[in-house]
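Tokens for chain A. Residues wanted.
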């Protein structure tokens, strides 16, 4: 007989060895370096305008987005558990970062980012990364779409070139009211630059998909604004340009009051960062057939966030679009991500003065396209068609994210998704009266075994499905509704893979009821884990007897 042994648990080294080390051990040559260099350059060209746009939309200055991509991205690729992950600032964080800056200022943001890095590293070392996969799909679709709506609404001022007389509110309804009142100040030149940027991005993507459409669009828009002398606001007019070097690393202010104030923001950064980065790693696995190390990836994300905060950067996470670009560009391993950071550093050192000419309307156009792509329209339509449960979860998450708060949207969506799952699981649990003789006994003509089928004092009930608290009440009602109590009650667990404490406690109460009525309870078909749970809840002899099969239980005469 062949026995299956339990899989060996991976060692600490196997769980937390960076993929960079794995790739180098496998053998890394010149051909791989060339492929990674080309992929890294391609991703850097995409990341350059996007990083600045995300930083500005987050309520900070454009260079902070570059610091994040360069410093944070370097540690994500060097220490991460994915071969192809590209780290940097992400559109999903725009809302949270902007709210943190508004509440606590830049210093508070840097501290929250550093603390989120600590949280992520701890989550990874505690091996909790595998639990992130339990976030329901409708929740991820809903909050991603909600973030897309918020990102687009946050760019309307620059898209239209509006002049505001009051500070733009964070809440979407008051924001739209303020923007509506400012519509008479629309800047036709800025609006034209926005449209030009969007059309170029879409056009290049369609007719030359391998070209860097974002960089081309921003470059053309900048050239048009400069050559034509258009009256539009640029990075130079608003921020005075960007530095041409990285700052010196500095630890954030760790005063106790400040730490306590930003802990909720840091926790939100860590939660969203874990979800976003592991989702990105899963996408890369699906495109390449590889498998990432989730806990190693979270530790790398933690280190990257701490390093980014020290250099004045924003939250770092794995970015799905840039990671997919990396894979499609032919990357062989993490060195492409490291080179992408070095290319960005070179761009900043050499071309920093040119960034002053980039119109804010052009970067708003970039983010408008990003928001459109983030909203998974086909996925939302499919979820709305799939049934009321999934539709409720995705809509609740989306609407709460847009009109209330991102964290509230995730928590409510996760809660609804969990309740929906429990409801569906409870419907898979069944209990039914079974014939006293099984088919194989009848076929074998086992008269001794089938004799009890004529005995009116023996009853057999079979359970099927995961027996947990969601089904305990239903099963208890069925058992309590048995009209005539037999002398021997057989409860078969052969088709039950799992039982929890609530279900076991219900059975313990039922067994005591049967004992008081003089009914002998026999439990059959339990595996070791189920029997352990039942024993722990008092279901032992003489309260109940255990037999391996129903047949064995039916053979008993006493």
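Reply:
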């Amino acid at each position: 007989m062949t026995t299956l042994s339990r899989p060996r648990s991976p060692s600490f080294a196997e769980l937390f060895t960076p993929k960079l080390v794995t790739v180098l051990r496998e053998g890394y040559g010149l051909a791989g370096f060339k492929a990674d260099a080309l992929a890294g350059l391609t991703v850097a060209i995409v990341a350059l305008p996007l990083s600045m746009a995300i930083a500005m939309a987050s309520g900070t200055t454009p260079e902070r987005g570059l610091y994040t991509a360069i410093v944070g991205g370097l540690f994500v690729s060097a220490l991460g558990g994915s071969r192809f992950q590209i780290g940097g600032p992400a559109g999903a964080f725009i809302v949270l970062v902007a709210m943190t800056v508004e509440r606590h200022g830049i210093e508070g943001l840097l501290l929250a980012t550093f603390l989120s890095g600590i949280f992520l590293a701890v989550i990874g070392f505690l091996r909790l990364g595998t639990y992130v996969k339990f976030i329901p799909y409708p929740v991820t679709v809903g909050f991603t779409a909600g973030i897309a709506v918020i990102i687009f609404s946050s760019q309307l001022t620059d898209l239209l070139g509006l002049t505001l007389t009051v500070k733009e509110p964070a809440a979407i309804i008051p924001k739209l009211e303020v923007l509506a009142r400012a519509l008479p100040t629309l800047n036709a030149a800025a609006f034209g630059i926005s449209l030009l940027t969007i059309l170029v991005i879409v056009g290049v993507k369609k007719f030359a998909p391998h070209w860097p459409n974002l960089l081309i669009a921003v470059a053309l828009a900048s050239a048009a604004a400069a050559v034509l002398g258009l009256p539009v606001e640029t990075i130079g007019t608003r921020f005075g340009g960007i530095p041409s070097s990285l700052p010196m690393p500095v630890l954030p202010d760790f005063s106790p009051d400040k730490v306590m104030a930003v802990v909720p923001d840091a926790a939100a950064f860590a939660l969203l960062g874990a979800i976003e980065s592991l989702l990105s790693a899963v996408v890369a696995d699906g495109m390449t057939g590889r498998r990432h190390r989730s806990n190693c990836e979270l530790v790398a994300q933690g280190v990257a966030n701490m390093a980014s905060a020290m250099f004045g950067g924003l939250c770092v996470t794995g970015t799905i679009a840039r990671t997919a670009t990396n894979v499609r560009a032919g990357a062989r391993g993490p060195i492409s991500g490291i080179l992408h950071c070095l290319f960005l550093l070179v761009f900043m050192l050499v071309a920093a003065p040119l960034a002053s000419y980039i119109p804010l309307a052009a970067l708003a156009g970039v983010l408008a396209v990003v928001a459109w792509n983030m909203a998974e329209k086909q996925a939302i339509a499919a979820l709305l068609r799939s049934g009321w449960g999934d539709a409720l979860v995705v809509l609740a998450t989306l609407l709460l994210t847009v009109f209330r708060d991102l964290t509230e949207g995730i928590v409510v969506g996760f809660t609804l998704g969990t309740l929906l799952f429990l409801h569906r699981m409870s419907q898979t649990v069944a209990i039914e009266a079974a014939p006293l003789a099984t088919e194989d006994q009848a076929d074998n003509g086992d008269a001794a075994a089938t004799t009890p089928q004529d005995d009116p004092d023996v009853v057999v009930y079979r359970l099927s499905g995961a027996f947990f608290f969601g089904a305990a009440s239903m099963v208890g009602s069925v058992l309590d509704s048995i009209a005539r109590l037999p002398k021997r009650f057989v409860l078969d667990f052969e088709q039950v893979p799992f039982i929890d404490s609530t279900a076991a406690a219900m059975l313990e109460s039922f067994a005591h009821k049967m004992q008081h009525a003089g009914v002998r309870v026999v439990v059959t078909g339990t595996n070791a884990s189920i029997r352990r749970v039942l024993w722990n809840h008092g279901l032992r002899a003489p309260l109940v007897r255990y037999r391996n099969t129903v047949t064995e239980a039916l053979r008993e005469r006493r």
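Strands lie at 87-88, 317-318, 430-434, 458-464, 488-495, 520-524, 544-547. Confidence is low (pLDDT under 50) at residues 1-5, 438-453.
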